[in-house]
Write a structure and sequence with these properties.
The protein has 383 residues and is α+β, with helices and mostly antiparallel strands. The chain contains 11 helices and 8 strands. It folds into 3 domains: 108 residues, Acyl-CoA dehydrogenase/oxidase, N-terminal domain (Butyryl-Coa Dehydrogenase, subunit A, domain 1), CATH 1.10.540.10; 100 residues, Butyryl-CoA Dehydrogenase, subunit A, domain 2, CATH 2.40.110.10; 145 residues, Up-down Bundle (Butyryl-CoA Dehydrogenase, subunit A, domain 3), CATH 1.20.140.10. The strands form 2 sheets. It has a 4-stranded mixed β-sheet with strand order 1-4-5-8. A 4-stranded antiparallel β-sheet has the order 2-3-7-6, with no helix packed on it.
């Protein structure tokens, strides 16, 4: 008896061919082996990153005119989603690099001169690290004025890929001469004097992401490096860009995890010659929850529209709402998959046990659901 038709989780969500997905499938065994080893040792997925660099994944989003592959935004979502089927840690860490590239592709499409940045990514494939999850509206750290720039000190938690990072894109608060507080945004090469890692990434899940804390001690930041100054503690329009290019890519990873868990659970039931009615019903219920996550992700991609969006507050509200919906749905998918498979999924040797741990990370990306409710409530009441 066929419980359900097999879903093609490894294809483009819109049915278009994507040669990058074929490449990921070819690398699948190596991606998975490295992921398993990293999960057991807390080590960064270095071998997988070497493989991605070899095949120029780090430059995939860069427009062809600057030496990249020029993949569109939806294709990058699929790349990360399918990569998560084999190595969630690699996919999540890589999403942090890709969303920083995406922000600069958006700037380029809006007429800003980011040629130097995009060409550097295409030529050198540096690992780009975001500390945005720690920074958000307030940011942390100190900026002390000095000749030609600032001395920057801070500890930034959750620096995904910091184990092999090249450039941290970060921020810190600064009080100006008038007593007004701002948050300054700037890049810092991790090779700079005063930068070190606090190797404290020992986590429940996503153990291979190398998300160590980064310590900055009186690191010189030249005036020319300051990319943005915004008021501290208030929502700024820059977040409408950041959220709309970052969250769909990040949540693609968790949808990929949920798809993998759903496939495992469905295959488990399919092995029985005559599944019990409650097993069949459980697969149907799991399908509903997974469909919620997939539809919310597709709507995120619709809002982004391959970088063709106007960064209004509505974007921030819509993206954050869908992020919360996806986080709840993907966690529930894996929970339901565990119930379908039963006690054997409680063993560490079973793949669902790891997916259950990894998917928990969905709730911790900006912003927490309670904060999103407050954010969206305020937006809707003033609209």
């Amino acid at each position: 008896m066929n419980v359900t038709k097999e879903r093609k989780y490894d294809q483009h969500q819109n049915g278009r061919p994507n040669l990058w997905l074929e490449l990921i499938a070819q690398m699948g065994d190596q991606l998975s082996a490295c992921e398993q080893q990293s999960d057991e040792t807390d080590a960064f997925v270095s071998a997988n990153y070497a493989l991605l660099r070899e095949h120029r994944f780090f430059a995939a989003l860069v427009p062809a005119e600057f030496g990249g592959s020029g993949v569109d935004y939806g294709d990058m979502s699929d790349i990360l989603r399918v990569m998560a089927h084999y190595s969630p840690s690699t996919a999540l860490a890589h999403s942090m690099h890709q969303h920083l590239v995406a922000a600069n592709v958006f700037k380029h499409k809006k007429g800003q001169d980011v040629r130097g940045f995009l060409q550097k990514v295409a030529d050198q494939q540096p690992v780009l690290i975001s500390t945005g999850a720690r920074d958000w509206l307030e940011s942390n750290g100190t900026m002390t004025r000095t000749e030609g720039g600032y001395l920057f000190s801070a500890v930034k938690q959750f620096g995904s890929q910091s184990a092999e990072g090249g450039i941290a894109v970060t921020s810190a608060p600064y009080e100006d001469e008038q007593g007004d507080w701002h948050v300054l945004h700037f890049p810092v090469p991790l090779a700079s004097d005063g930068v070190s890692l606090i190797e404290n990434w020992e986590a429940l899940g996503m153990r291979g992401t190398g998300s160590h804390a980064i310590k900055f001690e009186d690191v010189f930041v030249p005036d020319a490096a300051i990319a943005l100054s915004r008021p501290r503690g208030t929502y700024h329009g820059v977040w409408n860009v950041v959220l709309t290019v970052a969250m769909p890519l990040i949540m693609s990873v968790y949808v990929g995890i949920a798809q993998k868990a759903a496939q495992i659970a469905t295959d488990h039931v399919r092995q029985f010659p005559a599944p019990k009615p409650h097993q069949i019903s459980a697969v149907g219920a799991l399908n509903n929850e997974l469909s919620i996550a997939e539809m919310a992700l597709n709507d995120m991609l619709r809002i982004n529209n391959n970088f063709d969006f106007t960064p209004t507050d509505a974007c921030g509200h819509l993206i954050l709402t869908r992020k919360s919906i996806i986080a709840d749905a993907v966690i529930e998918v894996v929970n339901q998959a565990m119930d379908i498979v039963g006690g054997q999924a409680f063993y560490r040797r079973h793949p669902l046990e790891k997916l259950l741990r990894d998917v928990q990370g969905a709730r911790y990306h900006p912003i927490y659901k309670a904060d999103q409710h407050l954010f969206s409530g305020n937006y809707l009441l003033r609209a």
